[in-house]
Amino acid sequence: MLTFLKLFKYYWKHLLNYKYVFRKRKILSSKIWGDQIFSDAINTSFNDYLSHSEKSNSRLKSLLIYDIIDCYSMYGITPKEYFVLNFRNKGKEERASFLSIKNKDEMCLVKPNAWNVFQQLENKSFFYSITKKYFSRELISINSIDDQCIFSEFYKKHNSFIIKSNFSHSGKGIKLIRDASNENVTCSGLFNKLFSDNNKNGFIVEELIEQAKWMKEWNSSSVNTIRIPSIRNSKGYHILNPFLRFGQPNCDIDNAGAGGAVILIDKDSGTLISNAHRQAGDVIKVKPETGELIKGLIVPKWKELLILTQEIHKNLPEDYYYVGFDFALTEDKWVLIEGNWGAFLSWQQIMDKGCKEEFQTLMEI
Asked: What positions does the domain Alpha-L-glutamate ligase-related protein ATP-grasp occupy (predicted)?
């Protein structure tokens, strides 16, 4: 009888192990939030965030994979979020306080008509059509080959412009034309090339923004922006954790996911309250092109931006409960770039603090 029990325990232990390995393989081959294969997301994050010695440590990587799977299951944290938010060094209670992109989207999706709102915000052409007056620049929408005449008229007036794929995000699907005459292609040829690259979803073409000197001094090669997350509930309009973004030298975009840097802003005064941080962990303490200390600088025309944000949100349909607005500053005023269901990854990374409870509370009122 004793021998039988020993054999049973031995084989049961290995059966459970095989079951876990099978489950793990199944999970790793599935898609996670954001439509990426789990194993691909892990490998990309290992490549981006592990040191050279850690990459060659198979035992460490195996332990990390188990923990990453658990964190996704329990907190909705993707592999990238796991490293950016330093989950390796956080306990259960602290981990539970962070707002993942999955959590944020799920909280938004329970609202009435939420899926339609999400699709509308994802569609740059549609969002422009309902907020046109706040862009203060010419923008055209290209959705079929028959729109070539619209592009031709725009091309006659603007030698430089930016092209964005309709459903692109995180700085992807963007092409900047600084001088159309140097493209070595006719207007018709350029249109055909752009349409071929974007024919599935269409694209928009925008007149370039001439940003204010104060904003350009962060990085002259990109249009640097302010993200204002705005929540509408039964008690009014609320701004949650705004921040400034600027790009890397010689880079056209300011997105954090493309190497851009993020600075936190006090929502009441417009004062910069943190150094600039990149997702890779780099910290910048001075304004790149002036050498001024970042902390304590004040965003120009901040009160005007708060008023503008509320005005735009008020003029959107009532079921737009949460919108992350992006703005650029010209010498005269703030202009709208786009709206989306923006995440809070950079804010939580810099503060080393979660904002899940605060976001959830505002969304439920």
From this structure: 113-354
